[in-house]
């Protein structure tokens, strides 16, 4: 471990300590490490559009809006290769929340998320993207297909 010191004014330090307590961190260091990982991950995600990622796309839509459900289904089917799992929840009589776990090339995942959340009637769309890095490439057994395992960056 490498240690470093930072200086904060009293107000910012008090707000940070409240955040540390609210989120249940054992200490400030754990919270700072998570903030740094998030910032580095976000920067990499912007820079490494050609890399692989795993992501969660969540959005709310009104299922009574004319042809919206059909349009969303069509877009999802066009990108079925990116979808790992999907959760559909009815929020009330009109609104649904969908949460879709995606995995694949970062650029393709972003384009899919952008096209879906840009549909008229989709509200509160948010993509949480985590860059991946190749861990190792191998095959299982003598007749297994070669493949790559990915792990989250950092």
Task: Kindly summarize this structure in a few lines.
The chain is about 35% helix and about 35% strand.
End-to-end separation: 15 Å
Largest sheet: 5 strands, antiparallel
Strand content: 25-35%
Poorly predicted parts: none
Radius of gyration: 20 Å
Mean pLDDT: 88
Percent in helix: 25-40%
Helix-and-strand structural type: alpha+beta
What spatial order of strands do you see in the largest sheet? 2-3-1-4-5
Tally of DSSP β-strands = 5
Q: What global shape is seen? A: flat
- Element-by-element helix/strand order: HHEHEEHEE
- Our count of helices gives 4
What does this protein structure show overall?
It is a single chain. The chain has 154 residues and is an alpha+beta fold. It is 37% helix and 34% strand. The protein contains four helices and five strands. The protein has a five-stranded antiparallel sheet. The relative contact order is 0.18.
Question: Which properties best describe this structure?
Answer:
single chain, 154 residues, alpha+beta, 5 strands, 37% helix, flat
Topology summary:
Layout (H helix, E strand, L loop, with lengths): L9 H14 L4 H20 L4 E11 L5 H11 L4 E8 L4 E11 H12 L4 E17 L8 E6 L2
Antiparallel strand pairs: 1-3, 1-4, 2-3, 4-5
